[in-house]
Amino acid sequence: MRPRRLAQKLPLAIPVALVILLAMLATLQYHWSGKVSALEQQRMKASVLRDGAHFSEDFDREVARAFLYFHPSPAVPADQRIEHVSSQYDRWISEAPYPSLVKEVYLIRPAKGGAQLEILRPEEHRFVPTSWTPELAETRRHVDAVTAHPEARGFGLGMTLAGEVSGLLIPLSFQPPPGTRTDDPLTGTHLLVRFDPQTIDREILPALTQRYFTGPRGNEYVVAVRETQDPKRLLFVSDPKFPVSSLKEGDLQVGMFGLRPFEELRTLSTEHGLTMHPRHPERHPESAWPRMGVQPFEGHHRGYGAWRLVLKHRDGTLEEAVTAIRRRNLAISLGILGLLGVTSGLMFVAAQRAQRLARQQIEFVAGVTHELHTPLTAIRSAGQNLADGVVADPTQVKRYGVLIESEGRRLSDMVGQALEFAGIQSGRRVYHPRPAGVEEIVVGALQDCRWLLQEKRIQVEREIEPGLPSVMVDAAALRRAVANLIENAVKYGGRGAWIGVRVRRDPAGPVEITVSDRGPGIRKEDLPHLFEPFFRGRDGATAGVPGSGLGLSLVRHIAEAHGGKVTVATGPEGTAFTLRLPALEADETLAAVEAPA
Q1: What is the distance between the terminal CA atoms of the chain, rounded to a whole angstrom?
Q2: 512: closest CA among 581, 585, 463, 440?
Q3: What is the pLDDT of residues 11-50, one digit of tens each?
Q4: Per the count of CB atoms within 10 A, which of 426, 446, 498, 553 is most buried?
Q5: Is 357 a member of any domain?
Q6: Contact call for residues 237 and 244 (beta carbons, < 8 A)
Q7: What is the residue range of 533's domain?
Q8: Residue 29: inside a domain
Q9: How far apart are CA 227 and CA 224, in angstroms?
Q10: Is the pTM for the entire model greater than 0.70?
Q11: What is the CA radius of gyration of the chain?
């Protein structure tokens, strides 16, 4: 008994174990996705930090390149430095990657009445006096500030300017060694190398954005450049449609537009006698560097660059973007697990159904064997008695003939049902629909069942509506379907000894053939499987009602093959099966009759 109980509990244990396993996988997936998201967030931060630093360095390298071209070398005599600037401008135009970056070059000379301004005329290779414009007012204040602090003269490599005029302020004099004096005539004289904002906005910054922030994932970040001192002033936005308010606090802010200690500047400092850092830090404390015009860089978030590179993820903050990715991955993973669970459930249900079908097939074979054995035994016994002359009375001979005929008909019906089912399963069953009268088919089905009705002493109540339209059916197949419904009503009608056959046309159009009985009805749990092959209700199987379980499945197949359907209504007072078939109108019937078979 124990192995049998274990075999019964095993199918139920499989889905329970599968559910537990899927729950464990989902839990592991959730924790694993959290760790992956944390690592992904660190990777994205490191990546954007690296790319932002490279973006800033590449832009500052172009600034340093301009400084390298226009800063004078100590090897050039003081009286030739100004003329040397003109030749360096020509060299810049012919060699620089972005020659239009330098828009104008000014010479600022100190004077008693105020600094004098001169502008370079490249075609004439000389500086000519010009007046201070309103946009150069901020630059003039910078020059006055540097002049007011002599200790800053010649210190470092110059300074960057932001605001209305962006560019470089480069001293043309050099700081002498400590304790010495100089008669340099260019003391206090500066070059103003003014940059073209359109070149920066339309060429340099878009190229750097394309290089560092357009990859396999697409343009995930919005790149903006704003002034450090005036954060509201945006100089560049990679996506003009992106809301500016979201750029106040980006995922990363990097200082840029300053003179950095690139290797090119280190080499230049040796050649030009310049220093990268103050020789005497105690005389030039770090807090005084911004006031003196020097922009040291102390990290990506604390740099004193004149501009700030602001990076903003399109999905919000970097944490929100990673959270969205995690949710998407979790949704995909849980969807896969859910699909796996549903697939496993369907496989389990299919296995249970296949097992039930196999059991029904075994029961079918056993039932058919018994059903075949009963009429064959009766036929052989009656034939043996007739052959041996045991029965000689004409009345008895007639009774034996009736027995042989009824048992032969019963045997033929079983063989016919088996062959019909085999033809349906193999796909070789072909119907030949032609217009036929429903009344003739129903009457023929009752005639086929007359022996069974007489044997069981069944009262038949027949109601056929007059003037019914024809239906397009295979008459023999539909006659077999109606006969199966009649036989089914006789078998399961109980002690009612009554069946009703009603044929009418529904107001909606189809013709309805209803076969009803007064039996105990069908159990609710048996209804979903009623039209499955080999299925037999629990009550019929336990009561020993003969049958193969094929009749109703054949009825449903025949009905659907002719564009109709079969339904059932059951209750304590009986059961009614209704076969609905589409009706033919008069013109359709005439066309179908005239068409070749």
Answers
A1: 62
A2: 581
A3: 667 777 777 887 888 787 777 777 777 777 777 788 888 8
A4: 553
A5: no
A6: yes
A7: 430-594
A8: no
A9: 10
A10: no
A11: 51
